[in-house]
Amino acid sequence: MNPLKADTDVHEVTPGLDKLCGLSALPPELVDLVFEHTLYDKDSIRACTLVSRSWRAVSAPFLFSSLTVMRETSFDDFHDFLVTRPDIASCIRELELTQVPNGLDIGSPHAAVTPTALAALSANLPALRVLRLHRMWITEPLHGLSTPTNPVASRSRLKALTLHDCSNDSNSLMSLRTLHAVLASFPSESVSLYWLTIVDASDLSAGCRGSQLHIENLTLYHIHAPTPLFQYFRQILVPHCLRSLQARMENAFNRDPDFLRVLSEFLIHVGGDQLRHLELPFVVGSVFAPEEDDPDHWRILQLQTCSELESVTFHLHVPLRRSFTRTPRTVTSRHGVPISALLVAFLPHLPSSLRVYTLTSLDAYSLDHVQSKTILHLERLDDALVARFPMLAKVRIILRDSDWLAEYFQAILQVMPMCRQRGILDIVVCSEEQVSGV
Predict the structure, then answer these.
(1) What is the pTM of this model?
(2) Which residues of 346-367 are buried (b: 16+ CB within 10 A; e: fewer)?
(3) I want to staple 184 with a disulfide (CB 3.0 to 4.6 A). Which of 147, 273, 327, 417 is the partner?
(4) Is 254 exposed, middle or buried (0-12, 13-18, 19+ CB in 10 A)?
(5) What is the C-alpha to C-alpha distance for residues 98 and 73, in angstroms, rounded to an integer?
(6) pLDDT tens for residues 269-309?
(7) CB atoms within 10 A of CB 345
């Protein structure tokens, strides 16, 4: 039985009903616009296919434009289905492939998927623009980091490629060779990597030369061992191709000089004056090294080379002593030096072209904490932002959704009067999942 047969059956329609329906008389662009608004409402689109033949012809491509396919092992049957039903395969624009072990060890050889098999599957999808791989065990290629034979080279590159919790084995580890095989098989404008643990950094330099990728937007969330990953992208990406970096590492408090140097080399080589949006991969907390509130410490990043940078995002974290009451919790910082001291020390290295400054995940749960001059001291940051960046259009504060939102809002409005008066203060509430990048 075809894996999608239940979704492909279409009932016969009443003869002559086409003449009663004006859809075929509408311009195709207008019809497409109508169906774009119901792209993820499969029930409504399925109902449209039953109205008339003309409606079916127009709506059927949207019924199959976005698919999620789940399998315990391989996707061979889905590949066979695409080969036998090119009419449906040509409609698929977004595809998510998910492995659901259902009792089968994800490390079992029966669950393995090769990069070549993935590329062969997608070769039957001429309209594919977005590909998401979720919880898949992808076997390591036999060869090194050299670009594999790409059966989809004739097709335009993807708009977005996502790898979420993918690995080589049951230990949730992924080698750079496997990652490169996937990225080279699916050239994409945007690449998002979530929950990866990178291993085998020793093969980093082997086979990279002459094999370059053009990625404009890169998202790296919850990555273990980020240093070899940044080194890999520095070697494999076309110089100055990156326009946006969104990053948050698993070891988010890693701000040692060696990591900052690797990050700097990456930003200079692949970003430079083309980088527009930067989300720094580390967290700024109330515990930091003595030299980190000195502007000279951050000179190592050489962000002045990103002369056209428009937005920057910092992740904040204030360690709190857990309590089951709503009383203010005790917070301590390094010798009374507030978090804003580090943030202000960073400002001289940002270009004057900056238009959006974002602080996210502000973990302070009382008015006293936000107002404190020894914990956050946001008044100091407020003054420095307004004085240094005349083109600044927005200062965005992203808060976790919690029971203390009223206190959050009130406190921030009081401690950032300059940004509020200029009308650039924007307070946003996000869920825990949105803040965590899940």
Answers:
(1) 0.83
(2) bbebbbeebebbbbbbbbbbbb
(3) 147
(4) middle
(5) 10
(6) 999 999 999 999 988 876 677 788 899 999 999 998 999 99
(7) 18
